[in-house]
Design a protein that fits this description.
Number of helices: 7
Helix content: 10-25%
Cofactor: Mg(2+)
Shape: globular
InterPro entries: AP_endonuc_1, Endo/exonu/phosph_ase_sf, Endo/exonuclease/phosphatase, ExoIII-like
Oligomer: single chain
CATH architecture: 4-Layer Sandwich
CATH superfamily: Endonuclease/exonuclease/phosphatase
CATH topology: Deoxyribonuclease I, Chain A
Number of strands: 14
CATH class: Alpha Beta
Distance between the termini: 5 Å
Number of domains: 1
Structural class: alpha+beta
Largest sheet: 6 strands, mixed
EC number: 3.1.11.2
Pfam families: Exo_endo_phos
Strand content: 25-35%
GO molecular function: double-stranded DNA 3'-5' DNA exonuclease activity
């Protein structure tokens, strides 16, 4: 069985003890990280190697940043960054081959405040992501595009529709762009296994959101048809959000037949 997980860690150095804890306790085959908030030279690869994980990463000082870790094997990098905008210097995308599948780790732009340039950037980025995912589909590669999409796909994916209605995560344009990915033939693994919704991956640090379970689902794993056929399960490691000095996200994962 192959377990591919995603964790927006919200600062890899600040939360390294929590991250190492999660890796050792749940032992995903592949772990995709977002918001590592570390320059390339500062990424703590040696700490992961001590517990058996090899890594590739695309860092940026102070914010953004993505990484792919693999248990007992080295991910083979295929791409870093998305084509289509030579001026985009944000570290938000990295893609690799590992264990016979293609894994793309993404940190999609938040887009707030909206309307405005940040929201426009989000929508352009989603268009570029769709172009890349179409290339993967055309090549019939068994692929998972996993990470923090910063999109609440449906009303069932938030604790409160009115509370989130003004947010970029839930605008019709954001939802439409996400729906187009699914319409291209990708499977939302977590939604497939939780069709009634009510499954959150993010709880804000403010206003007692965690204590009151005021969360929403913005971390997703989209599987190509070649990989969706191998899907066994999908879930969220919710308890890790409640630990000391936790990220505001909980890890999510999919399990696949070998």
């Amino acid at each position: 069985m192959l377990k591919v997980a995603s964790f927006n860690i919200n600062g890899v150095k600040a939360r390294l003890p929590r991250l190492l804890e999660w890796l050792e306790e749940t032992r995903p085959s592949v772990a995709c990280l977002q918001e590592i908030k570390s320059q390339d030279e500062g990424f703590p690869a040696a700490e992961f190697e001590k517990i058996g994980y090899q890594a590739i990463w695309h860092g940026q000082k102070g914010f953004n940043g993505v990484a792919i870790l693999a248990d007992g094997s080295a991910p083979v990098e295929v791409h870093r960054g998305l084509a289509g905008d030579p001026d985009d210097e944000h570290a938000r995308y990295i893609e690799a081959d590992i264990f016979g599948i293609r894994v793309a780790c993404i940190y999609l732009p938040n887009g707030n405040p909206q309307p405005g340039p940040k929201f426009d950037y989000k929508l352009r980025w989603m268009g570029r992501l769709r172009d890349r995912m179409r290339e993967l589909r055309a090549a019939e590669i068994p692929a998972v595009v996993i990470g923090d999409y910063n999109v609440i796909p449906q009303d069932k994916d938030t604790w409160s529709v009115p509370a989130m209605a003004p947010d970029a995560l839930m605008q019709p344009e954001s939802r439409d762009a996400f729906a187009r990915l699914l319409n291209d033939g990708w499977t939302d693994a977590l939604d497939l296994h939780n069709p009634r919704g009510g499954v959150w991956t993010f709880w804000d640090y403010q206003a007692g959101a965690w204590q009151r379970d005021h969360g929403f689902r913005i971390d997703h794993a989209l599987l190509s048809p070649e990989l969706a056929d191998r899907l066994v399960g999908a879930g969220v490691d919710k308890a890790y959000r409640g630990r000391e000095k936790a990220s505001d996200h909980a890890p999510m994962w999919v399990t696949l037949r070998d």
